Automatic annotation (TrEMBL), chain A:
Keywords: ATP-binding, Nucleotide-binding. PANTHER family: CARBOHYDRATE TRANSPORT ATP-BINDING PROTEIN MG119-RELATED, SUGAR ABC TRANSPORTER ATP-BINDING PROTEIN. The keyword Nucleotide-binding applies. Residues 7-243 form the ABC transporter domain. This is ATP-binding cassette domain-containing protein. Pfam families: ABC_tran (PF00005). CDD domains: ABC_Carb_Monos_I. The lineage of its organism: Bacteria, Bacillati, Actinomycetota, Actinomycetes, Kitasatosporales. It comes from Streptomyces bugieae. One of its GO terms (molecular function) is ATP binding. InterPro entries: AAA+_ATPase, ABC_carbohydrate_import_ATPase, ABC_transporter-like_ATP-bd, P-loop_NTPase.
Automatic annotation (TrEMBL), chain B:
It comes from the Bacteria. The keyword Transmembrane helix applies. Keywords: Cell inner membrane, Cell membrane, Membrane, Sugar transport, Transmembrane, Transmembrane helix, Transport. Residues 1-11 have a biased composition (Basic and acidic residues). It is a multi-pass membrane protein. The keyword Nucleotide-binding does not apply. Part of the binding-protein-dependent transport system for D-xylose. Probably responsible for the translocation of the substrate across the membrane. The lineage of its organism: Bacteria, Bacillati, Actinomycetota, Actinomycetes, Kitasatosporales. Residues 1-22 are annotated as: Disordered. InterPro entries: ABC_transp_permease. This is Xylose transport system permease protein XylH.
């Protein structure tokens, strides 16, 4: 495989006060690949997402984008590279309507004034292609249900032309049907050649859509598995720490990749 | 989502017009009530009640003279309150606006009367002083992390002290009662065409803008307001503004102060609702963290909002000084601060951030000044005025809190 990965993280460290949230974390996501990031609560998954999204930059470590080292220190820098993020807490402004949230920070304007008509048109078109139904795109998102809010956050990440989509537990508050819809969407993204980093606690979902599974445990890598050749039990024991096989797993991963 | 709503939504998608619920005004109002989106409905009703009560107690209350005076009396506090709306939208508070307004008036008086600086220059410097003060307070809030109410509480004391200091032992400085500043609240456009023209212009402008919006929406295939609703809204605006013009023309015509206030209200309303900057302010009021994650420069927006409130406080203070053609030691003290904040809240701007419009400053200050004016007309003690205003404020805050609860409950349905 000659093409460099879309995103490569090497030796990422991140500390919050006394908590070492991430220590020496490596990760690669290739275009047209879905990488599932799994791990117990507090393993550092969301922290890693925020590092990549430029919201809470890493203390140490290098980030490579298509083989080039980049510095992502602000959200705009990640967005400009084509990184779109759905945060675990959704990061929506309850008082703004759907259109306002979708375009927050990148509004369309004409002569300095917001072009609400164009933004609404794009929003309706986007929701249509994603087959998302909402009562109105002009209602404050506070008046939407948890599942609807989640779909708003997901559609926000589809706005523009993302190259890499980070999804932090995107199906957490969705019903069965909507969950299936999101998983379909993830597969569509892969087919379109995008990279996807998906966090989920649902092993069934992970097995259904992911190509690779990266395990984080206590802020460190604890395995990188090929979905097709790895058993459920192996992954679970990696997550819980029953097998502390960080070094061996990572080594074997590099061998298969290179 | 229920099947019925899905059906409605599908219908709406194919036919670019709002659904049935929005077209029936009563149903729309009911929906807004249950979802906590009442906006300015309560304050307009409240204002009508206040006016009816005082008019029934004293028939001079709704006289052209009294209403004309009211329209000038509201301007000083109203401008200050407009700045407060910006801060409240962040979910913060600025307790220094009263002191800043007094300091701006005193600064102008000292510069112009004592130092001989030309009025225009002194005016600009006094306003800029408010801007700088806002920037300083905003800096301590945004960059140092001191809670806004503490920073501005220090400002309340500090700027009041500075005002007393620069006024010196004389205490009161009388202003030129023929000067530029005096004209701000003393000048009236006496030709009847002025007030009527403004009413006609405002109404026509509103209609054209709304109509243009509908046309663009239809062309783009997105839902548009039905033309009937726009005609109705325009008609209401026409009646209200022409009636106001008629009343003003019965006395001295269109007050310059009112015109300036309206220009600020319209201009800042556009800034808040139609510019990316305004959108950032609302976003911060909704969720600071969400705003930060979309790359909004939180500190800069916060500082700028305190600059707006400082600037508006200074401008309001100059109008208050103009009304009494003097800068006094008591300027900016007393109820001014509370009235300015209360006006914004009574007018429908939420104390919890993220909800409000500049127009709430106008509506709220109308309520507060109407009460003050009615009480004064009837010769009752100001104690009664305080109690009534306090009661109204309590009602407004209760409505604000209940709407917030309704919105949250609605969000979980
Ligand atoms: N903003 C923060 N401030 C302090 N500690 C944090 C912050 N964000 C995350 N942490 C800590 O970092 C660790 C990893 O958290 P997180 O990345 O949210 O885990 P996960 O998403 O895997 O459940 C936890 O111990 C958490 O308490
Ligand atoms: Mg998490």
């Amino acid at each position: 495989m000659s093409a460099p990965p879309l995103l490569a993280l090497r030796g990422i460290f991140k500390r919050y006060g006394a908590v070492q949230a991430l220590a020496d974390v490596d990760l690669e996501v290739r275009a047209g690949q879905v990488v599932a990031l799994v791990g117990d609560n507090g393993a550092g998954k969301s922290t890693l997402i925020k590092v990549i999204a430029g919201v809470d930059p890493a203390d140490e470590g290098t980030v490579e984008w298509q083989g080039r080292p980049v510095h992502i220190t602000r959200p705009h820098e990640a967005q400009d590279l084509g990184i779109a993020t759905v945060y675990q807490d959704l990061a929506l402004c309850d008082n703004l309507d759907v259109v306002g949230n979708l375009f927050l920070g990148r509004e369309i304007h004409r002569a300095g004034l917001l072009d609400e008509v164009e933004m609404e048109r794009v929003t309706l078109g986007l929701l249509d292609t994603l087959a998302i139904r909402l009562p109105s795109v002009r209602l404050p998102v506070a008046s939407l249900s948890g599942g609807q809010r989640q779909t708003v956050a997901i559609s926000r990440s589809m706005l523009g032309e993302p190259r890499l989509v980070l999804l932090d537990e995107p199906t957490a508050s969705l019903g069965i049907e909507q969950t299936a819809q999101v998983l379909d969407l993830v597969e569509q993204l892969r087919e379109r050649g995008l990279g996807v980093l998906l966090i989920s606690h649902n092993m069934g979902d992970v097995k259904a859509v992911a190509d690779w599974i990266a395990v984080l445990r206590l802020g460190r890598n604890n395995g990188f598995f090929d979905v097709t050749t790895t058993s459920h039990e192996q992954i679970i024991s990696s997550i819980t720490g029953a097998t502390d096989n960080a070094v061996s797993r990572r080594a074997s991963h590099w061998e298969t990749e290179r | 989502m229920t099947r019925q709503r899905e059906g409605e939504q599908a219908a709406r998608r194919t036919r670019p017009a709002p659904g049935r619920a929005d077209r029936n005004p009563l149903a729309a109002l009911k929906r807004r009530f249950h979802s906590g989106e009442l906006g300015s409905v309560p304050v307009v009703l409240g204002l009508l009640v206040v006016w009816i009560i005082f008019e029934s107690l004293n028939e001079n209350f709704l006289s052209p003279r009294n209403l004309s005076n009211l329209s000038v009396d509201i301007v000083g506090i109203g401008l200050i309150s407009t700045g407060v709306v910006f801060v409240l939208l962040l979910g913060e508070i600025d307790l220094s606006v009263g002191s800043v307004s007094g300091l701006a008036a005193a600064g102008f008086a000292v510069l112009n009367v004592n130092q001989g600086v030309p009025e225009g220059l002194a005016l600009v410097l006094a306003v800029l002083a408010g801007t700088v003060i806002g920037a300083v307070q905003g800096f301590f809030f945004a960059k140092v992390g001191v809670p806004a109410f503490v920073v501005t509480l220090a400002g309340l004391l500090g700027w009041n002290g500075l005002m007393l200091y620069i006024l010196g032992s004389a205490g009161t400085i009388n202003l030129d009662d023929q000067g530029l500043l005096a004209k701000l609240t003393g000048y009236y456009f006496t030709p009847v065409a002025a007030a009527y023209g403004l009413a006609a212009l405002g109404t026509a402008g509103y209609f054209l803008a709304s109509y243009q919006d509908v046309r663009r929406r239809r062309a783009a295939g997105v839902p548009a307001r039905p033309l009937g609703e726009i005609v109705l809204r325009t008609a209401v605006l026409a009646v209200v503004s022409l009636a106001a013009a008629f009343v003003l023309n019965q006395f001295q015509g269109l007050p310059l102060a009112l015109l300036i206030f309206l220009v600020f209200l319209v201009g800042l309303d556009q800034v808040l609702r139609r510019t990316p900057y305004g959108r950032m302010i609302f976003a911060l009021g909704g969720s600071v963290e969400a705003a930060r994650r979309t790359g909004i420069n939180v500190d800069l927006v916060r500082i700028s909002v305190f600059m707006v409130s400082g600037t508006m406080a200074a401008i309001g203070g100059l109008f208050l000084a103009s009304r009494v053609t003097s800068a006094t030691q008591t300027a900016g003290s007393g109820n001014l601060l509370m009235d300015a904040i209360a006006a914004a809240v009574i007018g429908g701007t939420s104390l919890f951030g993220g909800r409000g419009r500049t127009w709430s400053a106008l509506l709220g200050v109308l309520v507060i000044q109407s009460i003050a004016s009615g009480v004064a007309l009837m010769g009752i003690q100001t104690a009664v005025q305080f109690m009534i205003t306090g009661g109204v404020l309590l009602v407004a805050v209760v409505i604000d809190s209940l709407s917030r609860r309704a919105r949250r409950a609605h969000g979980r349905v």
